[in-house]
């Protein structure tokens, strides 16, 4: 069967139509004519695979990564970068129109990533045995199939250097992959890097690592912080386990970001593209230029990076974060930068926001939620509040659209700014500025 690809889906797949239903075809590009195989129905849509590309798009390029076809994490790497930007803006526009009836003309031009390769500052890689040696790789999307990956062109080059050094040392010491029955062995490797320094976390079973192994790892020049995380939960959503063991070096990884001194624990969230994160936060702060607020609240504040960028625009900034480690981290960062009008509370975003709203006036709320977006409790709190302005930073057009559809009962969408943080993938960030209707 031959199908013409009409557009691109939210996950970077090509979309054709068969029997008036969409057919999602991984790896296909708009305007291509493809022969398909393995057509499977899922009620309102189909999925299929490419058998042959009959007519190729002029925008198709050879992927920069030799393993792109194996790990399949970079769903747009076969598309020229300038066309990736257009596709992402189109996906955002179509999604916001579908869910919130927002006209595409209201979306600004997408802010490009000046470094579309080698930008990622962290990896979280599963470990398996291959030909008797421990190796790192990826699980293919939607499966438990492990594919070893020898090199990743999305990672900061230092991550790749340290990843190879760590694997060499682990193999030298005879470390094996995790055994679910014995609850021992190495499960995942996490590396985070900023400005030439790395924080490494080994996720394992109930293993006691030898001092010789620890010493060899700390001898790696770039590794300045070394941790172990014990995770024996069979189907764990979180890569990290609840038990964290500090092995050596510095407990926090320190770096400069937007002129601020930062320090971060292994479990604390930080945007995966350092340079574009700075662009993102500066762009959000620019929406406040010339304004002065009494109280700004940042929900889902993490280590409080956005709060630092906004603190000069308010008498006080209050961050809300549910992870205690991140709150402690955020307080330490504010103190490190001698910023005294920013504080952080640990708790559920909706509950704490309700409490703060009753306690005093909130002029501006900044939210940067996970991919699941704002839950109904948070939406309900916002609709009942008297908060005048919201800056919503989103990483998922679908949940953003659904949230905006509800928020438009009380708020008017003023600005939508898309930003490319995760080049080669279909992921897109967006800043939305909303003001309460009179």
Overview of the molecule:
Belongs to the class I-like SAM-binding methyltransferase superfamily. RNA M5U methyltransferase family. This is 23S rRNA (Uracil(1939)-C(5))-methyltransferase RlmD. The chain is α/β, with parallel strands linked by helices and 438 residues long. It has three domains: 2-60, Nucleic acid-binding proteins (OB fold (Dihydrolipoamide Acetyltransferase, E2P), Beta Barrel); 104-112 and 257-436, Vaccinia Virus protein VP39 (Rossmann fold), CATH 3.40.50; 122-253, OB fold (Dihydrolipoamide Acetyltransferase, E2P) (Beta Barrel). It is built from ten helices and 22 strands. The strands form four sheets. A seven-stranded mixed beta sheet has the order 9-8-7-10-11-12-13, covered by helices on one side. Helix 2 (81-100) runs parallel beside helix 10 and helix 8 runs parallel beside helix 9. The protein is globular. 40% of the residues are buried. The model has no long low-confidence stretch (mean pLDDT 95).
């Amino acid at each position: 069967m031959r199908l013409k690809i009409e557009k691109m889906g939210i996950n970077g797949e090509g979309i054709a139509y068969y029997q008036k239903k969409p057919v999602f075809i991984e790896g296909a590009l708009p305007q291509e004519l493809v022969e398909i195989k393995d057509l499977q129905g899922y009620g309102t849509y189909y999925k299929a695979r490419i058998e042959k590309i009959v007519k190729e798009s002029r925008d198709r390029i050879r992927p920069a990564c030799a393993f792109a076809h194996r790990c399949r994490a970079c769903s747009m790497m076969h598309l020229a970068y300038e066309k990736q930007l257009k596709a992402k803006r189109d996906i955002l526009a179509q999604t916001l129109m579908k869910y919130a009836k927002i006209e595409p003309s209201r979306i600004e031009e997408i802010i490009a990533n000046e470094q579309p390769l080698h930008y990622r500052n962290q990896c979280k890689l599963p470990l398996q045995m291959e030909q008797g040696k421990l190796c790192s790789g990826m699980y293919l999307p939607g499966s438990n199939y492990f594919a070893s990956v020898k090199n990743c062109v999305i990672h900061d080059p230092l991550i790749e250097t340290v990843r190879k050094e760590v694997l060499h040392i682990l193999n030298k010491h005879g470390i094996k992959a995790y055994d679910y029955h014995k609850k021992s062995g190495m499960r995942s490797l996490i590396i985070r890097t900023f400005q030439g320094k790395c924080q490494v976390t080994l996720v394992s079973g109930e293993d006691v690592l030898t001092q010789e192994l620890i010493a060899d790892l700390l001898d790696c020049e770039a590794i300045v912080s070394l941790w172990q995380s014990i995770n024996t939960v069979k189907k764990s959503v979180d890569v990290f386990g609840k038990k964290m063991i500090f092995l050596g070096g510095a407990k926090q990884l320190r770096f400069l970001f937007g002129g601020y001194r930062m320090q971060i624990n292994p479990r604390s969230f930080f945007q995966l593209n350092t340079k574009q994160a700075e662009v993102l936060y500066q762009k959000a702060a620019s929406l406040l230029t010339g304004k002065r607020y009494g109280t700004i609240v940042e929900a889902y504040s993490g280590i409080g990076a956005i709060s630092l960028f906004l603190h000069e625009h308010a008498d006080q900034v209050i961050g809300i974060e549910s992870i205690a480690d991140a709150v402690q981290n955020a307080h330490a960062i504010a103190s490190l930068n001698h910023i005294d009008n920013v504080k952080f509370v640990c708790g559920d975003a909706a509950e704490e926001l309700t409490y703060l709203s009753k306690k005093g006036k909130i002029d501006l709320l900044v939210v940067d939620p996970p991919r699941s977006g704002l839950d109904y409790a948070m939406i309900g709190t916002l609709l009942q509040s008297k908060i005048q302005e919201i800056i919503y930073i989103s990483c998922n057009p679908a949940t953003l659209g659904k949230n905006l559809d509800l928020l438009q009962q009380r708020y008017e969408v003023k600005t939508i700014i898309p930003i490319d943080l995760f080049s080669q993938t279909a992921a897109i960030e967006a800043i939305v500025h909303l003001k309460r209707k009179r």
